[in-house]
Amino acid sequence: MKFAYSTGQKPLDGYTIKRGVGKGGFGEVYFALSDGGKEVALKLIRGQADIELRGIRQCLNLKHHHLVSLYDVKNDIHGEPWVVMEYVSGETLNTILNRHPRGLPQELIQQWFPALCRAVGYLHDHGIVHRDLKPGNIFLEAGMLKVGDYGLSKSMSSSHRSAQTQSVGTVHYMAPEVASGNYNKSVDVYALGVILYEMLTGSIPFDGESAQEVMMKHLMALPDLTKVPGPFKSVLAKALAKDPNHRHATAAELVQDVEAIYANVAEALPVERQRPVGVAKEVPLKNNTTPAPVKPTVLPIHASPQATVAEPTMTVPAASFRDQVGELTTALVKSTLFAGITTTLWAALRITDNSWSDIGMLFFLTLGICWAILIPTKFWTVIKEDEWKRRLILTACGALIGLLALWLEGWTPSIPGVFEASNQGPTNTLGLAAGAGFISYFGLTFGILRWWKTTNRRRSSWFSFFPVLATGFWALVLLILYPTPEKPYGAAALVMSSMILQWVSPWQAAPPALPKRMRVRRVA
Amino acid sequence: MRASLIGTLVFIGLIALGLRTTHQVHTSPRARAQDRVVIIEQGNANAVVSTNKRDRKQSGLPVWKDSVSGEFKSSSPEATEDAMRVAAERVARHLRAQTPPVEWTPTPEFVRKHMVKNVKEEQRELTDSNAPLTYRATVEFEMSDSSFQKILDEDRKYHVEQRMWWLARIVAGIVLMLVAVAGYVRLDDVTKGFYSIPLRIVALIVGLIGAAVVAVSVF
Predict the structure, then answer these.
(1) Which SS3 state, helix, strand or coil, does residue A283 take?
(2) List of chain A residues whose C-beta atoms are within 8 Å of the C-beta of residue B15
(3) What is the pTM of this model?
(4) So what's the ipTM on this one?
(5) Of the ranges A185-194, A326-335, A482-491, which one carries the lowest mean pLDDT score?
(6) Catalytic amino acids of A?
(7) Which residue is closest to B170 within chain A, CA to CA?
(8) What element of type H or E holds A24?
(9) Of A169, A511, B99, B140, which is most buried with the most CB atoms under 10 A?
(10) Are residues B159 and A423, on separate chains, in Cβ contact within 8 Å?
């Protein structure tokens, strides 16, 4: 992404650009530092600057802890307008939703959606309609939700979630009445309904090949609520009503309904789970009234099983490609270090005769196994993927490790008539039979075990002995195929790798699972 | 075809391949010395060569044998040691002449332990009556099937160690490149972009050093 200004430049007096963080139809956003040391975001407004600035100036004095603060509007020496605003360093809701393709955990929805509604309600109370509510404009910093990009005029865009917009919002979150040009804050209520739907299910209610198709669905089609947990169906049916008069009148009304659902669930939850750790108590909405009595319900979690996110099998990618690369390279470097440490320990225990070739064999095999597993599993971010495909890929990786072991044992690759090894003699005395043994041994140990669970960010604990024992078991059972069982480097390297992979792979604690009582009621 | 079916077939194939070869490998884990072709050295009256194991068994002949003498030395142990050194050099030359050549150089200790059959010592008295006696040792050694097998094993270890050092350089280069990328990403995040340009420069330098190490090792 090419930005107009680079690190170190001072397009605006008093602020030094540190890096570009976003770009779109409105202009560019930079992370910058004031001369006094304050971290800020600088938004360079391009296009319809006058219209944009008129909206922004209305919002300059708004103060809400769930809104990204706007500090000032300034012009640079070229006369281009810049908005100085709060720098939010966290992820966008869009990124988090991408990580949860089947819906967010209920705890997070319970925490974030009311905060979102309160921020939007605050804007409405001050006569401002956001008009471009979408996950890409909602930020999460240290668990605190913040709504940004308000006060700007919008245009339509056909891309989903994070698309940059210029006039009336992203088409996937756009209320039907926008097409008529006659709309008010109910468009934000509609967008909140779409976001709630997406938080619950991981998908948007209306999608299509083109903007026109999506718009037509917003105008004509009814949302598919079969994927939505039962208690939310009526709330979403109302929030996504085609007629703005049939929707919740305010964001406060919408949040009341949602909180009432969670209040009923909370009665069944232990006290410590009613408010997630680190979540500040919400300030009630100005127009908040006592929630209307709602029939006690139990969340049918089974409608969205991934919503609990307690499954250790779920794979969660890092926040961005850059982070993924950072995590992968760090894991590869760490695995080298750990392979060295474990091999040194092995040598210190004098399990083998400690010749350089033995120690080297063990080190390079361990390192090769770690890398061969870390690299493919890092890119397996889809929750439900055919296990057999993964097994086949890992088997192929294992076969390559078998070739590495064979080569380290002294074998030189040679294809008669195509590529003849320069030395066919002493170093090639292992023969093809031993080669097949190495390949089948590592191919099978790679294919039988579910290594991707060992590197899963959401594994049940940072380190577990179970994968180590499972690896040890299969490594020993299959040792019958190993060409030199008197020197079981293959088995040792596999066991060491299963430990190292856990040590070096990022781990993220899963939210606590629903209490047993809830699960029993759900099944009933 | 479904991945599960392909996977099952691959697994069965790997197991069958492994089991089929296991017996073969365990009974004959290394090709034996007698499988190699030994070049008959011309012009050396002491060299006796037999490439056929059955012939050797019947005749009791070794694969190859020779004898060498060292220099005159002032003591008997020194003379023996010198003869062993010369013998080791002779064996090394012989091994280099093989097709393919055996690159490992046997040590005098190896020759003494595995190849020596007889050591003859001769004394020489100088004309000067006050001068001390000098000694010279002649070593008769032979390369049997077992000693040749040991040489092949040592040669394999030698090649394996060479490969490992080569691989160590490659891995070091790759790790340097990985450190450059990981270090840049992590430090840039920690410093929130304040030092992006210096960090990029450092990462580039470290990465280039790593690439150079890899390139030098490979080419």
Answers:
(1) coil
(2) 440, 444, 481
(3) 0.57
(4) 0.72
(5) A482-491
(6) 132
(7) A364
(8) strand A15-24
(9) A169
(10) yes
